[in-house]
What we know:
Elements: H1 3-16, H2 18-56, E1 60-65, E2 77-78, H3 79-88, E3 93-98, E4 101-107, E5 112-120, E6 131-135, H4 140-144, E7 149-153, H5 154-161, E8 170-175, E9 178-189, H6 194-199, E10 206-209, H7 210-217, E11 222-223, E12 225-230, H8 236-251, E13 259-263, H9 264-307, H10 309-317, H11 322-359, H12 367-393, H13 397-402
Parallel strand pairs: 5-10, 7-9
Antiparallel strand pairs: 1-12, 1-13, 2-11, 3-12, 4-5, 4-8, 6-9, 7-10, 8-9
Helix pairs in contact: 1-11, 2-9, 2-11, 2-12, 9-11, 9-12, 11-12
Amino acid sequence: MNLLESIKVSLSAIFSNKMRSLLTMLGIIIGISSVITIVALGESSQKVIDEQFEAFGAGFAYFSINWRENYTIRDLLTSDDIDVLKSTFSDEIEAIVPSIYERGTVKSKSQKIDAGIYGGDENYIKIEKVDMIEGRYLSDEDVKGKRQVCIIDKEMALEIFGRSNVLGESLDIEIGGSPISLVIIGTYEKPKTTLQAMGGETIGNVFVPYTTLERITGNGGFYSEFEMSMGKETDIDSLTQKIIRLIEKRHGNEGENKYMVQTAEAELESINKVTGVVTLVIGAIAAISLLVGGIGVMNIMFVSVTERTREIGIRKAIGAKRKDILLQFLVESVIISGIGGIIGTIVGLSLSFVVSSIIRIPPSFSIETVIIAWLFSAGVGVFFGIYPANKASKLNPIDALRYE
Length: 404
């Protein structure tokens, strides 16, 4: 009996017992669909995270004092340090600004709104990426003149003034107990991202010249950290090490480990590792159901061998060899698992699309995952079908013909 004939006989046996075959496939279907769904959602989540980091700036880095080490005022950063970094690494660094942040309370006629107040300059838009709607962004003149100006989020403008066109309006803010009135020179909108859509709408921050915020808070021109954005082609790890060595040399604390750098790339790598491990673990747990499905296939093949014992005896009596019987039942086992794998793949992909739409992330899956899942289901058929098939092939034709 050749392979084609074995397939025809196997399909005939499967379709003659449709309900039994479907129930046998159920374990395979559940296992494959679970694995496909989990892996597809894991890939979707990882893709979303990658896109968000790209949108917010893959070249972002955060340079700061190493808080785990003892430091003095001599180790703090200054505007001169920033100027030196700008001139030394002008080709690699797109923007660099002291990281100055305060919590404040924005006052309106009827309410008070907690807000984040960020100090920036004309290049800060390359770090904190926003889309300007009306007016302009901060300028070099605003920074040098320590002007009392600001840009605010469109949602904040609607919340406080009831409209988005608020250029020239005064924004009353209390920062550290000190009230100040800022003139609104522009309104912005954060680029919409999938993560923001999942978290809902939020009111944005207020951006002011960092020199103005420094004057309000009495910073004194010393900084514990600064933010920077680097070009896409820049070797970020190499550049950050050069920056650390240069700052250490300027402050005379070489080798004392007084500074540290956090990069978006490093954070992304860490998150992707965690996401990958979680997906792998959950997928492995879901794959246990494949083992249960495989046992079901083995069980039904034993039943099939018992039911068809006389048929096996007749085939052997008219010249069928052991390998022909082995092939027939092995093919039947693989077909049952393979059909279950195909159905499970379709169900898994459908579930991943449904779940993705519910949690509002774009669905994503790789064709390699689908192929591996289907091959794995076929492999289950071979593994759990070979023992019953081998038992059938060893039946004595005389004993088989006598079987009732």
